[in-house]
Amino acid sequence: MNFAVFVLDKLKRHETVKAVRDHYASPTFADNLGEALLKLATARENGIFHTAGRSCLSRYEFAIKLAEIFGYSVGQVEPVYSSEFKQLAERPRNSCLRVEKAGKLLGMSLFTAEQGIKEMKRQESLQADPSS
Fold first, then answer.
1. What domain count does the chain have?
2. Can you tell me the mean pLDDT for 88-98?
3. Which of 21, 29, 86, 107 has its CA 20 to 30 A from that of 43?
């Protein structure tokens, strides 16, 4: 289960979501990533290309965006420090990726977190009502 689905499940059940506020990453919408990887597989370029979301957010900031866009109370999201969670491996404080090079090469826009969340919501509404 990915973090977005985890958060939305908890919000739907009116549960509190504890989300780390001191580590940053690039939330990535899977469909957008898949499109980028397919294009990259046929590109004639060599090198390292970061294919991730364009935003750099903490999980707390991401959970707040999920709550806002899906219409849940942001009060259900509680900011916590990573030191409050036991993790088997140490994580970098900032694992955000720069995706401009890949986007330019592929001729596409890698989604921001907000764009990805809005697309998730759109897809969810289509599943709920396939006639729309």
1. 1
2. 91
3. 29
pLDDT band at 98 (very low <50, low <70, confident <90, very high): very high
Q: Is the pLDDT of residue 34 over 70?
A: yes
What domain range is 76 assigned to?
3-128
Q: Are 74 and 67 in contact (CB under 8 A)?
A: yes
Residue 76 has which token pair? Answer: 């259900």
CATH code of residue 83: 3.40.50.720
Residue that the structure tokens 């259900």 belong to: 76
Give the predicted TM-score (pTM) of the model.
Answer: 0.91
Closest CA to 55 of 12, 118, 11: 118
